[in-house]
Give the backbone structure.
Amino acid sequence: KDSRLVDTAFAGPDGLYADGKGNMYFTDIDLKVPIAAAVPPQIKSGGIFRINLLDNDNISLVHFGQYGYDGIDGNGGDPNIIVATNSVDINIDEWQPFNNSVSNRTNIYIAQFEQQSDGSLIELERLFSIDDVDQTYFPTKPFLDGMTYDFDDNIWFATQINHTESRLSIINNKGVFLGEILLGNEFSIAAINYNDADGYYYGGMVSIPLFRNGKYFRIPSINVDKKKRMKRS
């Protein structure tokens, strides 16, 4: 064991999903934090954790990921399907997050899981891999982050390209790529969620490349006018 590193119980939960059935799931990584400033952090592994709200908030690891997951959601048409983005794609001994020439594209994908009655998860076939589409949509070193289902059961997920560009990517519930929304290079999108109450997508962004500032945004869906009419009636 490297004496220059200390283990962390949680490096900082990323994605979060509450299923309305007494379970809350979040993603996190097993981070080795350096004691000395000259030693870089190391990501050993990661996974999806479950908080059992009906059992004294007991926390358990329900799925082990070799490198870790980021965004997570389960608010789609099938209440037993949970999806999660995976972007930490290379063993930590090789992984250089800001070196855009180093990446393993086969490990950048959206996983899907079937939730069992006891709250555990069974991994299914990958829903989407970035190499399922032309590389112009996910060039060089993409990073998939926060994600959300919309009212049509499509999945919107935050995509960062080389830590210099930001965009929203959209697939359907079969994993077919539908398109993207380009968001420029000043801020990088990190989180997004669809709010069915008013029909808007809400999200958070951080400045790139230094991640020192942030801002919120909202995007109207085609359901906004319908929601307003429903409230008036």
Notes: Residues 224-232 form the longest helix (9 residues). The two ends are 65 Å apart (CA to CA).
